[in-house]
Task: structure prediction
Amino acid sequence: MHIVHTIEELRKQLSPFKRPAFVPTMGNLHDGHIALVRQAKPLGDVSVSSIFVNRLQFAPHEDFESYPRTLDTDAQRLEAAGCDVLFAPREQELYPQPQTYKVHPASDLSDLLEGHFRPGFFIGVSTVVLKLFSCVYAGMPSGVAAFGKKDYQQVLVVRRMVQQFALPIDILAGETQRAEDGLALSSRNGYLSPDERLEAVQLSKALQALGQAAQASSTPDLPALEAQAMQTLARRGWKPDYLTLRRRADLLPPQGALTGETLVVLGAAKLGNTRLIDNLEV
Ligand code: PAF
Result:
């Protein structure tokens, strides 16, 4: 595996190829990232990953400074998974000047849920993803990029950006990988204390219960069921931002009877100082 730190070196490594299979990450890799690398690799002619903790998608009070940076172990895991090129730019390389040109994904999709609770988050994500795409795919006839479904809304926002900018990139959405108890794998799980780690699975349990309760009737009282799910977590000491049932296609609330809709329950809640998100397609 070649480890490159500049856009020039990256493009040189990729120049013999026509269809990169790319997995952008912020590092501190877990089995979910590795599964994406393995899944995407056969769909392209060269496997590329990036590791870049993107300041633009963190609010000032969030964990940009403390986000775990584990380049050496990450590189070993990527190499073992068959990654051919690892792009690990320094901040100065990707943002040599303040990034004043940004992608503003203005739509309901990017303003609700994560966009509502983390204003500016999808501007930061879309901007860096477009920039990484430009580093990896410039001059390529086509490509594939893989994102994990744990960040469900992020996958939809990126997919819409790719459509609207007519980028020749197929977006692959990889299934969420879970620990044995059901907790969705996330780089932020490492922030949890041992007690919090035991409690953390309750988020996916609450989502499961909400999904089942909503499906028990074709016209459920969704606001009541969602409020109840949030109260259940709050009583256990969580600070929930949302637990909600949405349409998979646009993450808007389902209208009328649920029959025939493909749905997803999504949740975000803080346990101690750690904000966790998860979702389940129902
Ligand atoms: O999901 C992530 O790790 C990040 O949001 C991404 C897509 C690498 C952009 O920084």
